[in-house]
Design goal:
Number of helices: 8
Radius of gyration: 18 Å
Structural class: alpha/beta
Strand content: 15-25%
Length: 213
């Protein structure tokens, strides 16, 4: 009987799986958080695509400005209705990668660090769908959502709506964070990183287990 040869995993994915076997640092000060954002062709993870990706690292309560990435992904699938939001056109040519090249950059940058994003479930689903298209399994990193963390930081009071879903704009205004470069992947990642630092300050005082676990 002929047996189908197992598909060889890309080298970057093998590196990632090896790193994910390593235990994360125990101390909060030693943990690295990758704050990321995806700009997409739409809001349906299965049919839409990532247009651009931006990310920056946070460690020991500091944003590592020298260690950030942003790039654009060449598109076969495109929804012109989303262009007014993120300003990226189908003809955009700067720093374009194909999807597999983009995934290699994303996975190497994430390594075994923790992921932070606003409405993180959407960004992670978009990345996971891209991985699935190339025969790879979902991300294994622990994920933190700044919207969820904000709600957990609120006091328990009948006057406080702890179930409200806050947009990034709303929380940026609430925490007095400038919204420069909003709706660019790296710009939104930077705003989210500032938001994460401000929220985590309150979280650490109230319930450190949220960030230590």
């Amino acid at each position: 009987m002929w047996w189908k040869k197992p598909k060889q995993l890309p080298e970057f994915w093998q590196r990632y799986l090896t790193l994910m076997d390593s235990p994360p640092p125990k101390s909060l000060e030693e943990k690295t958080f990758v704050v990321l954002d995806t700009e997409t062709t739409g809001f349906h993870p299965k049919k839409d695509r990532i247009i651009s990706f931006g990310a920056i690292k946070v460690r020991n309560n500091s944003i590592i400005l020298a260690d950030c990435i942003e790039f654009y992904i060449a598109q076969d699938h495109y929804d012109a209705q989303s262009a007014p939001i993120h300003g990226i056109l189908q003809s955009e040519t700067k720093n374009q990668l194909n999807e597999l090249e983009a995934l290699e950059k994303i996975i190497d940058y994430l390594a075994n660090h923790y992921i932070v994003a606003h409405h993180a479930g959407f960004d992670v689903r978009m990345i996971n769908q891209a991985l699935k298209r190339h025969g790879l399994s979902p991300l294994k990193n622990k994920v933190f959502d700044t919207g969820y963390l904000h709600r957990k930081s609120l006091i328990h009071s009948p006057l406080v709506d702890r179930d409200k879903i806050y947009s990034l704009d709303e929380l940026a205004e609430k925490y007095d964070i400038p919204k420069k470069d909003r709706h660019t992947a790296l710009g939104d990642a930077y705003i989210t990183a500032l938001l994460f630092l401000k929220i985590s300050h309150h979280i650490k005082e109230k319930d450190k287990r949220l960030l230590y676990r």
